[in-house]
Amino acid sequence: MVKVTYIKNGQPIEIETDSTGQSLLEVAQENAVEMDSACGGNGVCTTCLIKVIEGTDSLGAVTEKEEIMGMDPTNPEYRLGCQCSVNGDCCVELAY
Ligand code: FES
């Protein structure tokens, strides 16, 4: 099990999941955490933007779609929740 903490509107929401390899968006949706996803998780809208608070190394590598949307693979502080896979404990803050 891994622990994913989503911070939304300043409030932490802690989730325990064994769904490693899924995206932050998928884990959020499976656990009734409200995360915007205007493009349906296709990596083209940025409404699922998150800031990584803890656990940068627990998240999958920055994807090509994220790079196209301006994410910096050498400093992945901001990620797209729909493209970012969860592989370990992490804490992220939702932008919207
Ligand atoms: S849901 Fe649109 S970029 Fe992630």
Strands of the biggest beta sheet: in what spatial order?
Answer: 2-1-5-3-4
Structural class estimated from helices and strands: alpha+beta
Instruction: Estimate the helix proportion, in percent.
Output: 10-25%
Q: How many H/I helices? A: 2
Mind telling me the CATH superfamily name?
Beta-grasp domain
Assigned CATH class: Alpha Beta
Number of strands: 5
Bound small-molecule species:
FE2/S2 (inorganic) cluster
**Number of separate domains:** 1
CATH topology: Ubiquitin-like (UB roll)
CATH architecture: Roll
In whole angstroms, the N-to-C terminal distance is: 27 Å
The ordered H/E elements are EEHEHEE
Whole-angstrom Rg = 12 Å
Q: β content, as a range?
A: 25-35%
Plain-language structure description:
- There is one protein chain.
- With 96 residues, the protein is α+β, with helices and mostly antiparallel strands.
- It has a single domain (2-94), classed as Ubiquitin-like (UB roll) (Roll).
- 12% of the residues lie in helices and 29% in strands.
- The chain has a five-stranded mixed beta sheet with strand order 2-1-5-3-4, with helices on one face.
- A hairpin with a 2-residue loop joins β1 and β2 (11-17).
- The longest helix has 7 residues, at 24-30.
- The termini are far apart.
- The model has no long low-confidence stretch (mean pLDDT 95).
- FE2/S2 (inorganic) cluster (FES) is lined by residues 37-39, 41-48, 80-82.
